[in-house]
Structure formats: structure tokens, C-alpha cells
Amino acid sequence: MTRLIFLGPPGAGKGTQAALLAKDCEVPHISTGDILRSAVAAGSELGQKADQYMSAGELVPDDLILDLIQERLGQDDAQKGWLLDGFPRNVPQAEFLQKLLDQISQPVDFVVNLDVEDDVIVARLLQRGRQDDEESVILNRLEVYREQTEPLIDYYRSRQQLVSVEGNQTMDAVYSDLKRLVVE
Q1: What does the pLDDT read at residue 182?
Q2: CA 25, CA 100: separation in Å to the nearest integer?
Q3: In whole angstroms, what is the distance from residue 105 CA to residue 3 CA?
Q4: Around 40, how many Cα atoms within 13 Å sit in the side-chain half-sphere?
Q5: ω before 28 within 30° of 0 (cis)?
Q6: pTM
Q7: Are strands 81-85 and 29-31 parallel, antiparallel or unpaired?
Q8: Any bridge partners for residue 94, and if so which?
Q9: pLDDT the model gives residue 173
Q10: For 105-136, what is each residue's pLDDT tens digit?
Q11: Given a cut of 80, is residue 59 above it in pLDDT?
Q12: Four-residue CA torsion sign, 145, 6, 153, 94
């Protein structure tokens, strides 16, 4: 079984690497964005609540995200393992997740931090060419990441669950490093 959490700044390659690894390990790649879209599309009660926030352009509140994560981890395909991408985003979410994983007897194997320097992130995201990928927006997203999400690195390091992977290499080299972690 493989149960991993992926951390790293926006543009580090979390989604790409998690999707590749999930396919190889035959476990679901669970991203908060996908969960939200699926819940809204399914018209579930939680999805309808999330849609109200998303339609208004607001962030979906933590408690609703936490309920959606709990619901997703309870599904059949997640019983043999999972890769979480984009969650938790802060220490209170990590603490909730730990309680949930203890409750459902699904301990995390380790937390992967894709380590990439800011200048590399900015260059990557500018090359991507999305509308919201202009330098000032990217720098703001990195600042928000540093304030809200980076404390998770210390949180998981203090629990001896953190493994850092150098994300400033080719996609294949990063994936090779990740595969070694899972096999060990």
C-alpha cells in the first residue's frame, strides 16, 4: 500500500508527479481541486455547498474541504492507498488529517516535499502561459504558500515523516527519485 502526501510550492510539479506515481502504484491521485469538481458534478450535498462558494469566486472553507477529504478517503478505491496533492494546506488541516487517518486506520507512509527554488518556479509558471501566470501574481502565490503552507514542512519534519526531493531536475529524474522512495 502507498499513502503519500505531496507538498511543494505552486509550479513544483506536484500534480504531474503524483498522477504518474498514482498510476504506477495503482492508487487514486486525490487532489482537492478534483474532489471539489467531482462533488459539484455529482450534485452531492457537500458538492452543492462547495459550489456556492466556488460560483461566488470565494475559497471553499476548511471545514467543507475536510468533510470532502473524509468522504473521498472512505471510498472503496482509496482503501488500498492514495496520493494526496494540495491537501493539507496548513497545520490545522494537517492535524485534522492526522486524526482522520488514525480514526480510519490509514497511516501516511511519508510526506514528499518537492523542493524548488523561487526563481525556477517563476520561470516555469511564466512559460506555462496561463492567464493568471503573470510574475506579480506568481510572486504573491509564492508568498501565500510561504506563509500558510511552508510551516507544514516543519510540522512533518518534526514527526519524522518528511522526505524532500529535489524538484529542479528533469521530470524523469524527479519521478525516478520518487519511485525509489516508494520501492524502499
Answers
A1: 87
A2: 23
A3: 12
A4: 14
A5: no
A6: 0.88
A7: parallel
A8: none
A9: 97
A10: 999 999 999 999 999 999 999 998 777 778 98
A11: no
A12: positive
Grid coordinates representing 183 are: 520501492
pLDDT score of 19: 95
Q: What is the DSSP string of the chain?
A: -EEEEEE--TTSSHHHHHHHHHHHHT--EEEHHHHHHHHHHHT-HHHHHHHHHHHTTPPPPHHHHHHHHHHHHTSGGGTTEEEEES---SHHHHHHHHHHHHHTT----EEEEEE--HHHHHHHHHHH--TT--HHHHHHHHHHIIIIITHHHHHHHHTT-EEEEE-SS-HHHHHHHHHHHHH-
Q: List phi, psi (to 5°) of 109.
A: -70, -55
CB atoms within 10 A of CB 9: 25
Check residue 174 and give left, alpha or beta (phi > 0: left; psi -120 to 50: alpha).
alpha
Cα angle 175-179-183, degrees, rounded to a multiple of 5: 175
Please name which of 76, 79, 95, 75 lies closest in space to residue 87, comparing C-alpha atoms: 95
